[in-house]
Amino acid sequence: MEHQDAHDLGLAHDLKTMELLASRRRALGWFASAGGAAMLAACDGGSGTTASTASTGTTTVTPTPTSSATATPTPTATATSGSCVVDPTETNGPYPADGTNTSSGATSNVLTASNVVRSDIRSSFIGSSTTTAAGVQVTLTLTLVDVNSACAPLAGYAIYIWHCDRDGKYSLYDLPAESYLRGVGVTDSNGQVSFTTIFPGCYSGRWPHIHFEVFSSLANATGGRYATLISQLAMPSAACSTVYNNATGYTTSIRNFASVSINSDNVFGDNTSAQIAQQTPTMSGSVSDGYTATAVIGIAR
């Protein structure tokens, strides 16, 4: 059979061929567009996933500062949480001046004095004397907490503290004309109250200490007989040694302190190690610059 080229078959054949080629080209164009769209979709999908991950990463990271900021108070909470015990009840001793005994034949009660609420307790404030007790300055901050409520701070409570002077003498008793080293403070929203006082001396037979009474309100404190807790703080051994051996006026304390121990003390001797730890203030400072001291007082409401 004679071979015939396509261009030799006439106009009708040529038109049909052209139409067929056009159809093929349209089809190829459609497939090319579909393939391109599919590739773009695939690329967008990758970018979308990446963008979503980055966004998620950003979203995940964003709360971190907020969480950190929210957690900022946690150290304060954990500072007392789980680290407090109920302070043991101790004797208020023979020199409380809280209305429970007498001095020089008269009932002694500083809690009824109008100016008993004060932060600096170094000076006498009753009668004509304004004598300031000499000695190494101590700023004492007490934090009152509720042991039954995860050591939560207790606001609005009154704390009365008193102690001997550097010679081991108590105002209103050993020194009837003086009323120094006694005072009341009311706890703030953090359960804290601060006093400026002096480092107490050591008298014969007792470990150096500070007395305190806790009242549920200032109104109850002025009654003098409604204490929630009566107890004592034990001065740190190292601070006692430093002050007594280096500060002026504590000479008699050196000998007395050498003859006592906290384990043989008739007040602290039967307490647990946890109680002793809490009753012993944490102190820092020096004889020349004075000391700062902090202690937690735990009660069970």
Write the topology of this structure.
Blueprint: H1 11-61, H2 63-71, H3 74-80, E1 98-103, E2 106-109, E3 137-146, E4 152-153, E5 158-162, E6 182-186, E7 192-198, E8 209-215, H4 218-221, E9 229-234, H5 237-246, H6 251-258, H7 273-279, E10 282-286, E11 290-299
Parallel strand pairs: 3-11
Antiparallel strand pairs: 1-2, 3-4, 3-7, 5-6, 5-8, 8-9, 10-11
Structural description of this entry:
- This protein has helices at 11-61, 63-71, 74-80, 218-221, 237-246, 251-258, 273-279, and strands at residues 98-103, 106-109, 137-146, 152-153, 158-162, 182-186, 192-198, 209-215, 229-234, 282-286, 290-299.
- With 301 residues, the protein is an alpha+beta fold.
- The strands form three sheets. Strands 3, 4, 7, 10 and 11 form a five-stranded mixed beta sheet that branches. It has a four-stranded antiparallel beta sheet with strand order 6-5-8-9. It has a two-stranded antiparallel ribbon with strand order 1-2.
- Helix 5 packs antiparallel against helix 6 (251-258).
- The longest helix is centred in the first third of the chain and has 51 residues, at 11-61.
- The protein is globular and about 45 Å long.
- Mean pLDDT is 80; it is low at 1-81.
